Amino acid sequence: MFSRLFSQSGLSLERLRALVEVGARGSIARAAENDPARQSLYSRQIKELEDFFQTGLVERQGRGIRLTAAGRELARISRFFLLGLSNFQRGRLAGGQTYRIGASATFLAAILVPALAHTRRAQAGIHFAVEPVAEEDIERRLHDLTLDFGVVSRSELSRPLQLSPLGSVPLNLWVPRGLAKSAGAAAAAFTSGRLPFAWPAAELPPARFELLQRQEPLLECATFLNARQALARGGLAAVLPDFLAPPEEAKHYFRLPPPAGIPDRLTFRLAWNPRLLRLNPHSVRQRDHFIQVLSRGLSPEERS
């Protein structure tokens, strides 16, 4: 059945592992942790894979390299295979498992890290690793199985990725009282484009909102956390989720519904690749655990 695959030398687990690590780290130097001997080994192993499959797997990008389309596909297949072997070695994940979770910086700081820090579901050998990841990168990394779970605000992802709702929070426009005499004046200033505001572009991509094609933010920042910092200085308005409502809100800010064209609620969803569940049956239990604790973390009662 596999005679042709093994009829010549050049294919091995070590070579496939080198490709996977180089693809995940973005360069041979980073994958080899700047060890010259390992860099040379990884370069040779990838060249041997290219000879075996008779196709280019890496290409130059500036001073570094990136995987070609064929390289990304082979890395994806290899990662799936190596994960399966690793899980089998652990006795179907009885222990020693780290679940990698990606989310926006705001969701990490406000919801995910507190939820995991207070979880009572401690299990021997089960660990969590979280990192801030942009939504488009979450989707790609779930496909590549370099993330186990992700939290997104999109309602759809490309197949075969799956989603489960966690909950939603209100969005409001917060305006420092020093920028307007009344809530009505603040709303009118925003509508007319006279209200300076900060926009969290990484979490509310401007391309999704026609409003931002007519009005340009004075400050385009990365996250809701950055926008909240700008708001606190008193010179800029900002759209924020309810769990980032500024302190002493009535005294220092006007709280307004979001302008037309901006949703009044932000919905979060847990995303995963069903291939992970087939590789690791224990991840079904962890998925359900994440849904439970993160949904609870988004509820007003739990945040109060």
- Strand fraction band? 15-25%
CATH architecture of the largest domain: 3-Layer(aba) Sandwich
Radius of gyration: 24 Å
Extract low-pLDDT stretches: none
Q: How would you name the CATH homologous superfamily of the largest domain? A: Periplasmic binding protein-like II
- The overall number of domains is 3
Under CATH, the topology of the largest domain is which? D-Maltodextrin-Binding Protein, domain 2
In CATH, what is the class of the largest domain?
Alpha Beta
Helix content: 40-55%
What overall geometry do the principal axes of the alpha carbons give? elongated
- The CA-CA distance between the termini, in Å, is 61 Å
Please, how many helices? 13
Class inferred from helices and paired strands: alpha/beta
Structure in words:
This protein has helices at residues 13-25, 28-31, 36-53, 69-89, 105-117, 135-144, 183-191, 211-214, 224-232, 249-252, 274-279, 282-298, 300-303, and strands at residues 58-61, 64-67, 97-103, 126-132, 149-152, 162-176, 197-200, 219-221, 237-241, 253-256, 265-272. With 304 residues, it is of the alpha/beta class. It folds into three domains: 13-88, Orthogonal Bundle (Arc Repressor Mutant, subunit A); 93-167 and 267-303, Periplasmic binding protein-like II (D-Maltodextrin-Binding Protein, domain 2, 3-Layer(aba) Sandwich), CATH 3.40.190.10; 169-266, D-Maltodextrin-Binding Protein, domain 2 (3-Layer(aba) Sandwich). The strands form two sheets. Strands 3, 4, 5, 6, 7, 8, 9, 10 and 11 form a nine-stranded mixed β-sheet that branches. Strands 1-2 form a two-stranded antiparallel sheet. A hairpin with a 2-residue loop joins strand 1 and strand 2 (64-67). Helix 1 crosses helix 3, helix 1 (13-25) packs across helix 4 and helix 5 (105-117) packs across helix 12 (282-298).
